[in-house]
């Protein structure tokens, strides 16, 4: 069984082709600058040199056509023809309240995804475009939706409702939804395996720190709170998103600068966060290098971000109760020993003792314990693998074995699983 996983963004389409029968990746890559012009594809095949090809893709349909041709034609090919593809899994950012797990896509499901696209206007329309493009190109191939929000649908009402007029929830479903669900699912299962426990016996804080950042409070294996909200704007300091702020600030600044609602939305999502503080950087590696060279605003940015991370650890420990472990994942969480160190400073009083040598000596791409042996609360770095969640969900839905993640036996939840 060969499964194609697609992640369609507003101006990109990322893909991963996986041979489920032999448990190996065949190819991965992405088309960038879809719609906006200057499009190109980068195609990676194990043990081959990466391929880059410039080709205009004015829409998602042409981008997916380019991906299929790259996978099946010429020296870049890894399968003989598109008939080799058994199923396609699609990342869908927002599933609203309807979807609590991955589902096979039919017309009813597609319409339900369309109905909540106002909750994710930058993401769901692109996800829908990708689904429709695959349906047109591969009409006989089953499609499966994997939702960013599904993992968090176990949150209790007191965690997901805002202190706003209740009618807003009743009429418009204004509430906390959370995102990065497949990442939080994957690393929480891996953390349980590393602890030698079943997920239902684990209380965790998982910290997905990349350009987008979200944290999750996990009690007995399920999400009970998460830092992103109705949209991915709420929560921690991110690459270009502000995270938690006084909600009166936008109105104040709109009056002061004569900004429109769309102007303010763009500023909060695209020109705030790390970029807003430093004035020039979103990549934390650049921020760290500049801070080491004496840039005061970059040093301040590191302090602000790590302070916010530390506050979330404290808040979520109060939420979950007796805590087993804190888990760092995603690009920054996996690679920045400095930000992990700063985030975990002075937490010994709550039971977190970082081992600085383990933290600094961590080999990139490896799972590792970075707390001391004597630390009551363990700290792990676990590289996330959202694509594997996609693939396993699709395969299980096709063979009829799929179930809620607390009942379903993911391969990576096994103590014997060896990450690639």
Main attributes of the structure:
Nucleotidyltransferase, domain 5; alpha/beta; globular; 2 domains; six-stranded mixed β-sheet; 15 helices
**Large-scale geometry:** globular
Look at the helices and sheets and give the structural class.
alpha/beta
Tell me the number of helical segments per DSSP (H or I, 4 or more residues long). Answer: 15
What spatial order of strands do you see in the largest sheet? 5-4-3-2-1-6-8-7
Low-confidence stretches: none
What radius of gyration results from the CA coordinates?
Answer: 21 Å
The major sheet is characterized as: 8 strands, mixed
| CATH-assigned fold name of the largest domain | Nucleotidyltransferase, domain 5
Overall tally of structural domains: 2
Mean pLDDT across all amino acids: 93
Number of strands: 14
What is shown here, in short?
37% of the residues lie in helices and 18% in strands. The chain contains 15 helices and 14 strands. β4 and β5 form a beta hairpin.
Structural description of this entry:
With 420 residues, the chain is an alpha/beta fold. It has 2 domains: 2-147, Nucleotidyltransferase, domain 5 (2-Layer Sandwich), CATH 3.30.420; 197-381, ATPase, nucleotide binding domain (Nucleotidyltransferase, domain 5). Helices cover 37% and strands 18% of the residues. It has 15 helices and 14 strands. It has helices at 60-72, 107-115, 124-137, 157-160, 166-172, 181-195, 249-257, 261-270, 273-278, 284-292, 296-320, 330-335, 337-343, 356-361, 386-399, and strands at 2-8, 12-19, 24-32, 40-44, 51-54, 85-92, 103-104, 143-147, 204-209, 213-219, 222-226, 325-329, 368-369, 378-381. It has an 8-stranded mixed beta sheet, with helices on both faces. A hairpin with a 3-residue loop joins strand 1 and strand 2 (12-19).
